[in-house]
Structures
1.
Amino acid sequence: MEKQKLIKKFDKQSAIYEENTRKRMMGEWRKRLVEGVQGDVLEIAVGAGANFPYYDMAQVKLTAADFSPMMLHRARRIADELRMQVNLIESDIETLEFPEHSFDYVVSTLSLCGYDNPEQVLRNISRWCRPSGRICLLEHGLGGNVLLKSTQHLLNPIARKVSGCHWNRDIIQIVRNSGLQIERMEPHWGGMIHLIWARV
């Protein structure tokens, strides 16, 4: 999908994302994902800041990026309400650049579904993360049984057109193909949701 069209889709969805943030959607998973995250932290595809309530800001210096200006507007509002200091960057994640080894942790939640080349995004993250750092992912993809997978493949063109994301990506295989080393993972919702902690 052409990038500007994709940005407009997410701009239009930003109000829903903010509402979900205020409702603490997937809050328990998000909290568990970022527990213990500290130091220089990058969150990619930050959306409306759904993870912001769960960071220990006494331990974190947070940089957050998204290509949607409306998402960043709403993320700024959430950050201000939480009295968080966050460096927000408007940028296409697939063309974003940072010096190597800039961050102790990189966080991504529900973003690998949208990229043209998710494996390359993860390889970029690997370069930006320090050798002692960790990469924390909460992602959705193919379920764990044949019927669920078939349904996701069938509905994927509609999902891509409506929401801008792929429903039928093999997230675990994408992570492994990127070269990241999975240390721990938790499947949920019939294997459609994965919490993944990885290292470079």
2.
Amino acid sequence: MSNHAMDRFSGGQDHRTPPTDGDAGRRAVVVGSGPNGLTAAAVLARAGWDVDVHERNAAYGGASASSDVLGPGTIVDLGAAGHAFGVASPIFRDLELTRYGLEWLQPDLPMAHPLEGQPAALLHRSVQETMAGLGRDGVAWKALHAPLVDHIDAHLENILGPSLLRWPPHLVSMVRFGVRALWSAGATGRALFREEPARALFAGSSTHAILPPSHVLTSAFGLIFGALGMTRGWPVARGGSQGIADALVAVLRAHGGRVHLQHEVTDLREFEDADAVLLDLTPRQLLALDGTDLSSRYSAHLRRWKYGTAASKVDYLLDGPVPWTDARVAGAGTVHVAGTLAELEHAEREAQAGRLPDRPFVMVCQQQSADASRATGEAAGKTVLWTYAHVPGGCDVPVEDLIESQIERFAPGFRDRIVHRVATPPSALESWNPNVVAGDVAGGSMGGLQQVLRPAPVLSPHRTSAPGLYLASSSTPPGGGVHGMAGLHAARAAMADAAASRR
């Protein structure tokens, strides 16, 4: 690192250092071009830094990349698909990504949870509409979610911050959230709701934690994903999630930054002249690098990092829409296919315990319900369907039959619609994106203390123990999702340290 780099490991706080003329002439290197890495790069370039991004693959984007893997005319999201946090992201809004080509498209319904023998549970764009569809549980649903829905921006500022160990900017909102969030989603659902639709709808959202709904704190995920759906929606990006990465790169290039593809970084000593190096990597990839100068204590913490339940992905090309028994489900951008709360709990416990469930939790994304560009040209008239099942970490057992059987329960005749499928098991996901270790798409388990202390028990989680070296990935707060906030916090830490070195 150059002499501008900070000469010691520093503790953390919420650094909101604005760009200054002193940032001009500083040089930053970003390793990894996922949404966090690109956000960090765009923020630093806009502040006047000279920025280079290095990506091992032939295309940038990481978790927000898209391609035509189902054939000509198709657009398939290789990673994330629905973007409740993306459309709500403060840094995406601040970077004005919609001015750089990003367009959010909202399906009719943010989410649906089909059930056997009864109508599906539906999440609408408002708490009133959602409440109206949940019968005698509607009042309890509103009472549970209203504090978040009414003050969604305050809650986002609290939970998307640089550390959960800091004093929250909106203390009252944090207390109200905490009282609800501490419980398991299963306990909350059974205590507050009398019927299966509300219980399943809440638990399905909680499963974005990639933990069984019986785990403590999973209510936090059910609450925030539900509240986002009822305020910001769960939109898709027009033309694929690649549009998010394209917009971030456009911001970066507009401020003089560069992206270098097919360059796998293995030794950080090639960037000794940089003032800051920011890594969009998980702990395993960080430990594999040469030239990091990490302390033995910090390295020991990273070696204890745990990866969790995996995603096993299957993309489908269908000859028409999914034949859902409840036709309203066709209008949902995201569909949680799991059945009842009890079935969902069992499936997630089995996957976490290392056993492949007979009926796994399956997430289905119907981006085409909002974005007609997903199937055009040779694919016109067909339907692109994105799915994954939760499976044990590293489990490469084929899951096509399991996914199709689950969907068939709620959409009889689904198999007859399949024209082509592409399966991407955990090992293939990791081969494409090494951050997806053994298929873990969250950058590390959200269980236990890792939900709060990511990636180590330090006050400033985006700083490593090495001067001038920062971690900007989903392994740091605020965790997984395409929102760029980990990249923002790492960039702010680098700017704050550069300012401190000038003083």
